[in-house]
Design a protein that fits this description.
This protein is of the alpha/beta class. The chain has two domains: 271 residues, Aldehyde Dehydrogenase, Chain A, domain 1 (3-Layer(aba) Sandwich); 184 residues, Aldehyde Dehydrogenase, Chain A, domain 2 (3-Layer(aba) Sandwich). A seven-stranded mixed beta sheet has the order 12-15-16-11-10-18-19, sandwiched between helices. Strand 8, helix 9 and strand 9 form a beta-alpha-beta unit. The longest helix is centred in the first third of the chain and has 21 residues. The termini are far apart. Its EC number is 1.2.1.3. Keywords: NAD, Oxidoreductase.
């Protein structure tokens, strides 16, 4: 029997976490068994951490971007060296199976690689001026301290998306991890501290603040934090957004997702089945990109549902430490309660639970849910509500217009997909009058985004973009510059004065 506490301690020690950080009042429990892993020290003074990071930023902003990239390059190397240790902590704290935990750590390595390249590509534009002898251009400058608030389900990847890019942009970072997953934060912070020391960068360039709601509120309200990047529920975003806006700060919000996939008559049903099962049941349904609604043409619905039910009945559910497990535990009892409440509501609305919905008995007191497939007569309120658990609602449609209308008729707008071999159907789904999500896929599920493409969504998902494309602009401020080399004072729009 593996000693979970010892495994956590060994991984933390390997990453360089000091014992003093592991003596405190915040109890960390593992979803694998429900038992206590360790306790960690909470942050008493968030303002002090922010002030220290701000002072470090004032030095860091003048360092050339390619030199800043060298720090992130070293961070990526250290993460790679400690990939197994970090994956172990992700499994113990978040309950992910080994391959998903390793995949999350790989995302960290990938975003470091991306950010290193980005450090030589923070481009501004040069525009033609209407005045002879003038040059019009824009330059980008570091923003300041970036506050990162992350959720339990991706305890390290989302932090790295923000931190790697923010550092090459010249910013400092203060990270408030979920109080459910602080061990992974301590490990990542220790590795970054080592990289900072080796690069002779300012020591307080990155700080971790640990605690509950009050810690997050202090970070959100700090006038020295010009950007707050927050990942969590839509409810959380509704509180964070106005508070930051009230002090004229910026937000980058990654909130709820109620993701759907449309399956057309021409779809490859075997391919669709594999993609759907991973997207709906992977991570025990605890991804913001989890597939929660399946909109299937009536002509293929029965066949596809039969394939899904068969696949669900074979899903290996159990401890993520066991080889072959595909579905690990929910994070805690509250998550299990939300799942059972949602299934009860679906039944009251006329839904039929075709498979799953029960709790699987595993050693200890973990909450291992059987992923559920629920056939629904209509898109009711519970279907339009995101439940962070492995529930897949199945709806049917007759025309593609009807499918797209069903797809878009939810408050969230994160990820979406269509399964079709008809090019016109694919193009329609990708068009302006198709999916209204920030991520739109063809013949692939809703989860599993790659580094390089901008990640984020619309509507109640918050509108933020991270991880790729031009998302770096969120971490910088833009200045428009006019340089006069003409020797004359020429005013724009032919204005004459004096």
């Amino acid at each position: 029997m593996i000693d979970l506490r010892e495994s956590a301690q060994n991984a933390l020690k390997a990453c360089g976490v000091e014992d003093a950080a592991l003596t405190g009042g915040l109890t960390v429990r593992t979803p694998l068994t429900g038992v206590e892993l360790l306790s960690v020290r909470e942050t008493a003074d968030v303002d002090a951490a922010v002030t220290a990071a701000h002072a470090a930023y004032q030095q860091w902003r003048t360092v050339p971007a390619p030199v800043r990239g060298a720090l992130v390059k070293r961070l990526g190397q250290l993460i790679d060296e400690h990939k197994d240790d970090l994956a172990t902590l992700v499994t113990l704290e978040a309950g992910k199976i080994r391959s998903e935990a390793l995949g999350e750590v790989q995302e960290m390595i990938d975003i470091c690689d991306f950010a290193v390249g980005l450090s030589r590509q923070l481009y501004g534009r040069t525009m033609p001026s209407e005045r002879p002898g003038h040059r019009l251009m824009e330059t980008w400058h570091p923003l300041g301290v970036v506050g990162v608030i992350s959720a339990f389900n991706f305890p390290v990847a989302v932090w790295s998306w923000n931190t790697a890019v923010a550092l090459v942009c010249g910013d400092a970072v203060v990270w408030k991890p979920s109080e459910k997953t602080p061990l992974t934060a301590l490990a990542c912070s220790a590795l970054l501290d080592r990289a900072i020391a080796e690069a002779s960068a300012p020591a307080d360039l990155h700080r971790v603040v640990i605690g509950g709601r009050e810690v997050g509120e202090a970070l959100v309200d700090s006038p020295l934090v010009p950007l707050v990047s927050a990942t969590g529920s839509t409810r959380m975003g509704r509180e964070v957004g106005p508070r930051v806006a009230a002090r004229f700060g910026r937000t980058l919000l990654e909130l709820g997702g109620n993701n759907a996939a449309v399956v057309t008559p021409s779809a490859d049903l075997d391919l669709a089945t594999r993609a759907i099962v991973f997207a709906a049941a992977g991570t025990a349904g605890q991804r913001c990109t989890t597939l929660r609604r399946l909109i299937v043409h009536s002509s293929v619905a029965d066949t596809l549902v039969e394939k899904l039910v068969t696949a669900y009945r074979k899903l290996p559910i159990g401890s993520p430490l066991e080889a072959g497990t595909l579905v690990g535990p929910l994070i805690d009892a509250a998550a299990w309660g939300h799942m059972t409440d949602a299934l009860d509501a679906a039944r009251r609305d006329g839904g039929e639970v075709l498979v799953g919905g029960g709790r699987r008995e595993v050693d200890g007191d973990g909450y291992y849910a059987e992923p559920a497939v629920v056939r629904m007569p209509a898109q009711t309120d519970i279907v339009r509500t995101e439940t962070f658990a492995p529930i897949l609602y199945v709806l049917t449609y007759e025309t593609l217009d009807e499918a797209i209308a069903l797809h878009n008729d939810v408050p969230q707008g994160l990820s979406s997909g269509i399964f079709t071999r008809d090019q016109q159907e694919a193009e329609r789904f990708l068009a302006a009058d198709g999916s209204d999500c920030g991520i739109v896929n063809v013949n692939i599920g809703t989860s599993g985004a790659e580094i390089g493409g901008a990640f984020g969504g619309e509507k109640e998902t918050g509108g933020g973009r991270e991880s790729g494309s031009d998302a770096w602009r969120a971490y910088m401020r833009r200045a428009t510059n006019t340089v006069n080399a003409s020797g004359q004072l020429l005013l724009a729009q032919d204005v004459s004065f004096l």
